[in-house]
Amino acid sequence: MKNPWEVRPEVASFASYEAGISIEEIAQKYGLSKVVKLASNENPFGISPKVQAVLQDKIGESFRYPAAKNPRLVQAIAQYYGKKYSHIKPEQIFIGNGSDELIDLLFRVRIDPAVQNAVAFKPCFGLYETQAQFHGCALRQAPLRDDFSFDVDALLELVDENTALVLITNPDNPSGRLMPKEDMIRLAKSLPSACLLVIDEAYIEFAEADLSLLSDLPKYPNVAIMRTFSKVYGLAGLRIGYAILPEELAEYLWRVRLPFSLNYLAQEAAITALFDDDFRKKTIEHVEKSRTLIMQTLKDFGCEVIPSASNFIMFKPPKDAILVHQKLLEKGYIIRSLKAYGLAKYLRVNVGLDDENTGFLHTLQSILES
Ligand SMILES: *Cc1c(COP(=O)(O)O)cnc(C)c1O
Prior knowledge:
Elements: H1 9-12, H2 23-30, E1 36-37, H3 49-58, H4 71-82, E2 93-96, H5 98-110, E3 117-122, H6 126-134, E4 138-143, H7 152-157, E5 163-169, H8 181-190, E6 196-200, E7 223-228, E8 241-244, H9 247-256, H10 264-274, H11 277-300, E9 304-305, E10 312-316, H12 321-330, E11 333-334, E12 336-337, E13 347-350, H13 354-369
Parallel strand pairs: 1-11, 3-4, 3-5, 5-6, 6-7
Antiparallel strand pairs: 2-8, 7-8, 9-10, 10-13, 12-13
Bound molecules: pyridoxal-5'-phosphate (PLP).
Residues 41, 98-100, 125, 169, 173, 200, 202, 228, 230-231, 236, 241 line the site of pyridoxal-5'-phosphate.
């Protein structure tokens, strides 16, 4: 290095994760008083009243450091799952500042970039690509089929004895598709035993049946399940994600994680949210009902619609998607353009409140008819 500001080549060429556009940005740009954001798969009901009350109650304690390694939240998660799956032990639970931190740490603890590689589908969640790049890790990607279903054999072909991570999102983002359980089992069983299969289940609560391998995890010692408080629990702004994974790996992750990466208020909110069954049920019911309606209406408008098991829907409008996206923005509807995923003809919209969904659909209809 010649200069004090020089960085590693992976940093110099780094392309940051493209986050959704903000409401303020669009309101200001187009002089709108009301902007609806249906772009980041957030919970339309916002934060649950119970969680809000707890945050207000606990705010005065924020001058203290949180307990390192978040023991209260680990116990709460173990207790929550223990009711259903007696095999899940607290020692298998690892918590981070959003699943984002978990993804980042998995690359850092598992991958020696000179030797190991990672495997994912293409397109995949943007963070798998950014964090692989940051760590200098080769990410091998198998294309999804044309209908966005998962070609497990194509994925397996990319795996070799140096593959340390295979990353799957189920239901997938951005397509919303669900991998059939038998495919997931086949994948888990076919991977070399030293390869960790990471199943990112950020949206699993919205899938109609419980298709997670969590129910018989002891049969699959090479599987890590990742979940988040950002979607069904409505806490995206507080940044809480967790994983259930091999005990030995959890121990290493706790060892290297920054001691206070999950803040005190986030931990208290998560404990309350986990046992707030009413809010979770209300959210899931609303998503299931609205998803059916939005999918059907989009089809009636002549859009190609990918079947979704999630809280968002990916579709291809019968007009130029980039233009449709732009016109929606001008009318105060922020949805997601999938250009950054290499899918310039597609858009992704998440379920909002009833009036937001109808407002979006009416606006889209007027754009498609103009
Ligand atoms: C939203 C999302 C997450 C959640 O990330 P957090 O960091 O927990 O907010 C994880 N994976 C995928 C694929 C997502 O879409």
